[in-house]
Amino acid sequence: MSARPLVLDLLPGSFAVSRLDPGAAVPGWADRPGSPLSSRTRTADELSVVCPADLVPEGVRAERGWRAFRVEGPLPFALTGVLASIAGPLADAGVNLFVVSTFDTDYVLVPGRLLDRAAAALEAEGHAVRRPAGS
User: Fold this and answer.
1) For the domain 7-130, what is the CATH superfamily, name and number?
2) For residue 2, what pLDDT band results from cuts at 50, 70 and 90?
3) Within the chain, how many helices (H) and strands (E) appear?
């Protein structure tokens, strides 16, 4: 089963990707009930936290100013080419990305300053980009 044209919903707000030490406890600021996206991933080398940028305290190592697209799902596990159909056009347009995958779908974060370029590249690929009202 191959990826077809996708629907990507632009989430409201700006996000940050933070890096903490691998043994650090998940900080209380990392989650806000009702947030459109919050993710914690621990490896032997780090604890990465993705959350709304306004939650990350000053002094925490973070890349801020990301915007996030949610791929409409759920996506079957047998579906192939989903990220390739997104990453390829973004790379061709010079847009870097950060991806968070869940059981049901994928979230693709792009730098906020490149949001319009990213949306145009995705739409040119045949994907539908839905923006929240007022954005």
Assistant:
1) VC0802-like (3.30.2130.10)
2) low
3) 2, 8
Region 1-28: mean pLDDT is: 92
Helix (H, G, I), strand (E, B) or coil at 29: helix
Sequence-distant (6+) residues with CB within 8 A of 93 are: 117, 118, 120, 121
Query: How far apart, in whole angstroms, are the C-alpha atoms of residue 76 and residue 91?
Result: 25
Tens digit of each residue's pLDDT (9 = 90 or more) over 90-107:
999 999 999 999 999 999
pTM of the model: 0.93
8 A C-beta contact, residue 4 and residue 72:
no
Can you give the residue ranges of every domain in the chain?
7-130
What does each C-alpha distance from 19 to 30, 78, 100, 113, 129 come to in angstroms? 12, 31, 15, 22, 29
Query: What is the C-alpha to C-alpha distance for residues 116 and 81, in angstroms, rounded to an integer?
Result: 23
